[in-house]
Amino acid sequence: MPRPASPPTVSPDPPATGRRLAAGVDPGAHLSSRAAVAADVSVAPGAVIGAGVSVGAGAVVGSGAVIHDGTEIGARCVIEDGAILGKRPRLRARSTAPRGELAPLVVGPGASICAGAVVYAGAVIGAEAIIGDQAHVRERVTIGERTVIGRGSSVELDARVGARVIVQSNVYVTSGTVIEDDVFLGPAVVTTNDHTMGRHPREEPTPGPVFRRACRVGGGVVVVPGIVVGAEAFVAAGAVVTADVAERAVVMGVPARFVREVEDEDLLERWR
């Protein structure tokens, strides 16, 4: 028997048409009377803004964007066409993910949520961060200021991503991953958190990897559960990382093996 649908998180409200609107709100938008939208916000036709949503000064909301109840959008944010903000998770019956009430999604000043991206309730997006087209950010994720999550990348629940991080296109960041400041993850990096692939007791932890400050991981790298990649380390493209990588180590291959240390001239402070 199919499970009942989740309750809506955009509360019913009369359409914006016929109400007194700020100059930048298109009459074709659906704007809850219980939303707080700054006077100079631009809202395109077809956008839906739910009850209790706050949208700061100078923000732009694109056509067809859906902002669910309670979401907080900072000043000067850009929410592009078709983005979905504040979505609630839909979990399978045997999922071990927490099911408690989620805090509202918070999007910091100057951040951009690009076309077709989905950002869940309970996440916090830092100032001037960019969530790329069709990217996916789950509940209770934190994204630091000026971080970029590339097109089609997925950041799973409870991951923590620091400031000024570059996550390129089609990267999979598994739940519980920790990514410190200034890390670089190349395209199609895959992280994992379950050695048993689902055949473990429900209470057994599934640790994601940890990427320490300013480490760099090349395209197509696979990182197995619980691995720590040290500060300023360099993982060459295509490697499979099955053991911890020391600070400043350069590793490559399948499995990844130590080759040399990162030279002083390649350290981050030389490239600020």
Descriptive notes:
- With 272 residues, the chain is an all-beta fold.
- The protein is 0% helix and 27% strand.
- A twelve-stranded mixed β-sheet has the order 3-6-9-12-15-18-21-24-27-30-32-33, with no helix packed on it.
- Strand 32 (249-252) and strand 33 form a beta hairpin.
- The termini are far apart.
- 42% of the residues are buried.
- Mean pLDDT is 92; it is low at 1-5.
Topology overview:
Layout (H helix, E strand, L loop, with lengths): L29 E2 L4 E2 L4 E2 L4 E2 L4 E2 L4 E2 L4 E2 L4 E2 L4 E2 L4 E4 L18 E2 L4 E2 L4 E3 L3 E2 L4 E2 L4 E2 L4 E2 L4 E2 L4 E2 L4 E2 L4 E2 L4 E2 L4 E2 L4 E2 L4 E2 L18 E2 L4 E2 L4 E2 L4 E2 L4 E2 L4 E2 L7 E4 L4 E5 L11
Parallel strand pairs: 1-4, 2-5, 3-6, 4-7, 5-8, 6-9, 7-10, 8-11, 9-12, 10-13, 11-14, 12-15, 13-16, 14-17, 15-18, 16-19, 17-20, 18-21, 19-22, 20-23, 21-24, 23-26, 24-27, 25-28, 26-29, 27-30, 28-31, 30-32
Antiparallel strand pairs: 32-33
Structural domain tally: 2
Largest sheet features: 12 strands, mixed
Approximate shape: globular
Q: What's the CATH architecture of the largest domain?
A: 3 Solenoid
CATH class of the largest domain: Mainly Beta
Contiguous runs where pLDDT drops below 50 for at least 5 residues: 1-5
Quaternary state reads single chain
Structural class: mainly beta
User: What share of residues is helical?
Assistant: under 10%
- Strand fraction equals 25-35%
Mean pLDDT: 92
The named CATH superfamily of the largest domain: Hexapeptide repeat proteins
